[in-house]
């Protein structure tokens, strides 16, 4: 039978799942005196720092139905909810660090002592003054260590964001500095980056074909017909077959300054689409 446990001034239903005590998002929000939305947003923003089975359980379908049967006498699960997060001791600790409020720290101590590890709960009034002082010092040190760990994790996240920003800035610089006299190499580099954003170098041909299609539509140019005509002209001039076979659409574009300019513009637009440059950055440079 599920029992009510007093955590600070809150009464919450004791829940066990897969052999360990857990709390719902609503319970966690109530205890930490935060909103469900705050808990959900903090998780969504830092999901990579949570591990399923260690910090939380995500119940769906059969497992969710099984859980509802365990707690049918309590309003812990909305009737039509498609999924439910259950937070473990470590998950509750991580949420406390992310909220970072005095109330959250205070309530995590209460949650730990009254709910997750009730056997360690001690009536402080029964201890002598020296022991009470020592216990207070240990708890303060633990809290400081947790806060320092949270700060280190936050600094690491910020460093990762800065590194991503630096990479993005480098990509933007590369896009906006496409040079008319080195356009083949520059556009090839940008297409490679777009392919990586799309999932890998296997996407290069698809992206390159897309760039040609857009160029044809924008410039009203039949690139394949031009390529065929170029090969015929070169063949009449006795150019060897191996060179004819190596001709491609880029050679056709190279023959027409307007096509070069148009192709550079197409690649810049596609760079925005594939997320390696912002439109405002490109426009500010041109």
From TrEMBL:
Domain KilA-N DNA-binding, chain residue ranges per copy: 15-98
Keyword Coiled coil assigned: yes
Sorted UniProt keywords: Coiled coil
Source domain of life: Bacteria
Coiled coil ranges: 138-175
A Pfam family recorded for this sequence: ORF6N
Protein name: ORF6N domain-containing protein
């Amino acid at each position: 039978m599920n029992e009510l446990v007093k955590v600070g001034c809150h009464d919450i239903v004791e829940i066990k799942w897969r052999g360990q005590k857990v709390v719902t998002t609503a319970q966690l929000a109530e205890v930490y005196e935060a909103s469900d939305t705050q808990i959900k947003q903090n998780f969504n923003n830092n999901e990579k720092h949570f591990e399923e089975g260690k910090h939380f359980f995500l119940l769906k379908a059969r497992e969710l139905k099984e859980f509802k049967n365990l707690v049918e006498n309590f309003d812990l699960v909305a009737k039509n909810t498609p999924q439910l997060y259950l937070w473990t001791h470590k998950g509750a600790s991580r949420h406390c660090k992310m909220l970072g409020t005095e109330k959250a720290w205070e309530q995590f101590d209460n949650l730990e002592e009254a709910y997750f590890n009730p056997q360690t709960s001690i009536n402080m009034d029964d201890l002598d003054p020296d022991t009470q002082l020592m216990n207070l010092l240990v708890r303060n040190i633990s809290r400081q260590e947790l806060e320092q760990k949270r700060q280190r994790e936050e600094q690491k996240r910020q460093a990762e964001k800065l590194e991503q920003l630096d990479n993005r800035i480098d990509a933007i610089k590369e896009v906006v500095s496409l040079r008319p006299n080195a356009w083949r190499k520059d556009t090839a580099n940008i297409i490679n980056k777009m392919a990586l954003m799309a999932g890998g170098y296997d996407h290069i041909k698809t992206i390159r074909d897309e760039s040609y299609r857009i160029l044809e539509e924008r410039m009203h140019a039949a690139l394949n017909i031009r390529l065929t005509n170029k090969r015929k002209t070169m063949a009449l001039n006795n150019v060897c077959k191996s060179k004819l076979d190596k001709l491609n659409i880029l050679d056709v574009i190279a023959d027409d300054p307007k096509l070069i300019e148009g192709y550079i513009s197409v690649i810049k637009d596609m760079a925005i689409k594939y997320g390696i440059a912002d439109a405002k950055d490109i426009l500010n440079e041109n």
